[in-house]
Amino acid sequence: MNDHEALKKPSGVLHFKLPSPGRIFVSFLFLFAIALALFPVLYILSMSLMSAEDYFHSKLIPSRFFFTNYTKAWKLAQMDLFYKNSIIVCTASVFFTLCVSSLAGYAFARFRFPGGSFIYYVLLLSMMIPPQILLIPLFINLRTLELLNTYWALIGPYTALGFAFGMFILKGFFELIPSSIEESAIMEGARKFRIFRSIMLPLARPAMATVTIFLFLNNWNEFMLALTFITDVKFKTLPVGIYSLLSFEYYEDYTTLAAALAMFTVPVMVVFFIFQKQFIKSLVAGAIKG
Length: 290
What we know:
Number of helices: 14
Helix content: over 70%
Distance between the termini: 49 Å
Shape: globular
CATH topology: MetI-like fold
CATH architecture: Orthogonal Bundle
């Protein structure tokens, strides 16, 4: 570089490159989508702390925080009982679904047997069956087995309905794991089930976290089966309990309903934050496979 070029190039000056109009537009779209998704949640939280006067004056932010809406909703909807029932049903059904679907996913991913592909695709077809079609047969079977108004009236159907989805996700993830890992374990004298329990399941934690989040969210929000199979208040789940707030006496008490809905979403958010890292790892692995 000669002296003339050195004089033309300023030293110690930071140069900032402005983003292109296209990048600004895409960033604006992302921010708009995030705001659109968060607004209902934030409005429900805000509404749950409002007085009735603030709500009917269409205020977005309460002039005064009324935490009594939460205590009122907790007592009216018997949230402690319904929380317990929902946690028992969702935790048990997700656990049983993971146990069965992980075994099936591993078998279809690693073993070759006559009719294996046909059985796998038949099981996948069950994901296309609307639960409404199964409502009457399930009701008759549960009544015959005397399981109505018990936790098993929901745990059994939830496990069966989530099985195909869990098997599909876990089979795809097991296929990503190199077979050389299993071959090394076999050479060390490990049996198939020990390989599955001690090696494959720990490696498949991201996929299991994905299945856990989706199934827990689906089972936590499920309303139709819970309303049909459970009539005893001792076994009702949270969606049915919140629905009871829509009685004639409280159907216009929107702030109390908002407080109940806010409490309804807390466990789902907790489950997501617990498993979010594993969930992201599963999504990245699926993208790499694709």
